[in-house]
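Worked example (supplementary).
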Amino acid sequence: MAGVSTATVSHILNNSRPVLPKTRQRVLRAIERLNYRPSAIARSLTTNITRSVAVMVADLTNPFFAAIVRGIEDRIEPHGYNLIVCNTDEQAAREARYLEMLLTRRVDGLIIAPTGETQPLLGEFAHHQIPLVFIDRKPPESYGPVIAVDNFSIGRKATEYLIRLGHQRIAILARKPMLSTVLGRLGGYRQALANHHLPIDDSLICITEHDLDAVAVSARRLLASPNRPSAIIATNQIMTVGVLQAMQEQKLKYPDDISLVCFDDNPWVALFDPPLTAVRQPITQLCDVAIDTLQQAMKRKSEKVSPTPDLFLQAELIERASCKSI
Amino acid sequence: MAGVSTATVSHILNNSRPVLPKTRQRVLRAIERLNYRPSAIARSLTTNITRSVAVMVADLTNPFFAAIVRGIEDRIEPHGYNLIVCNTDEQAAREARYLEMLLTRRVDGLIIAPTGETQPLLGEFAHHQIPLVFIDRKPPESYGPVIAVDNFSIGRKATEYLIRLGHQRIAILARKPMLSTVLGRLGGYRQALANHHLPIDDSLICITEHDLDAVAVSARRLLASPNRPSAIIATNQIMTVGVLQAMQEQKLKYPDDISLVCFDDNPWVALFDPPLTAVRQPITQLCDVAIDTLQQAMKRKSEKVSPTPDLFLQAELIERASCKSI
DNA sequence: CTGTTAGCGCATTCAG
DNA sequence: CTGAATGCGCTAACAG
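After joint prediction of all chains, the assembly is encoded as:
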């Protein structure tokens, strides 16, 4: 319609070579009138670039992951990338299906909070030079850089806070499966107790399924036990909700009946009466670093392979009013 | 490597024509050994099918939208579709950029909770036969079926509930911009008052920016006013948080100082002391219907164009203990 | 039951 | 400054 070759149109669209202003005008007008829109598909086929990255997490419904996905989207959209979201639901099989899919789709990169299971397919990404960044959780085998929170430190910090308030019987609620996050938090807890020469009582370490009902059962048992702990650390939102539910049922109130530290800050916990002391994770920084890492990797692709180092960020303990000193 | 043509491989991969078991074995072995994975890109180029759908919402960080995206992902993954998420952040410009992108990518379908602004690009979807379903919010001009909540009914129901408890001065907090959801809820509120011959006091209808600080300001003013309302309806989570924050500051307690009905149920509000009365939206059904509608549209594509009707689902008022009778 | 071939819509050489 | 021709990796006729 503009009387030019496809090559010229291509070059105009991509600014890839000088074009006479007049020709350009003609072409642009034709594009307008034809309502022409280049096909990203065809472009991808020739360039081997899809301009799409994927993010794989356990569950979008978890505000922590929602914030991560949101943060990533925010930083990637301005560059013309699209974001494919994948929920694994903590199932290795689903994770595998998705990995296969993403390989087939030739995504340009992947940011993943892996399930615990070993996933050989992850090796394919490295093999095909597809940048891969792990976020929040460390996979069983290393296939790429990990950007996560220093869970050990914050676990220790939370525990030491309670110890300083005079608590001796501190319970901790954590989920199964044993992800790197959980392991870190538990490790910090133990370390803090050990540092202060407090005994480690296994009955105070409650490992439950990552499921509200299961958590509630554990919490109820913990609260009803003859020598109830004087403080509880809930290592994620589900645990927190479970504990609060059990306390509501048994008409127990913090901080008088029991002190409470919860993981993951959000608007609600600050509005509780009294407000809850909580661990705030540096979600924004997590995303920023993950994206930077990914983008750098996407840039140098087949170039020099300088392995990016893992990075562990510090979380913060927001002291409010759910713990009392003994 | 298997000594066959690409056609045979294609047919084996797609089960699109009979193949001798022996040849199939040979091909499959070669696929295995070569670590061959078909290119979704190339396939899309020839078939004009991308097996990807997009969902566009204001903000994943809003649990309501997170739940919607999650619900959609859940129903679409088993069919081998990928989900592209787009956050508009309530900005028409960003929405437009994304629409353009999705058109370029040739997605197979789109589920969208539109910003309020008119968006001519939406017309392109119909024009290119790309199925389009609106969820939660009704766009200014109709470009496709709308699956939403009957906001008018639930707005009226919430208000009538308070009227039945004897409240006469009922305030309502709603966001700007004026989306169909807000309009519906406000409409129901007015209707309820009118039905019961109560005056409509404009000073009790607070319209604020969808931003926590702005909401808090409005809420503070409302609570500090000489003749404070005896009840408040918070028409979404931000409003609820804002009101609770203002109440916390002014040491006001529900239900004694004021009654409170909030929109959007979640685990936290039930754990408040006393637990909050809340409107629960049928998110799962919303997603189910939206997906069904989309899938049917994707199936019959260029076939008979029987326009799908809009659908409005009923929300539910969960009565807890944040309202008292006067 | 299998192979040959054309073409999807672009980017990219190589000529001119 | 522009055009012709090739190929990216598939699917779908069509032939055999």
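Two points are worth noting when inspecting this output. Residues 12 and 142 of chain B are 43 Å apart (CA to CA). Chain B touches chain A through 52 residues (CB under 8 Å).
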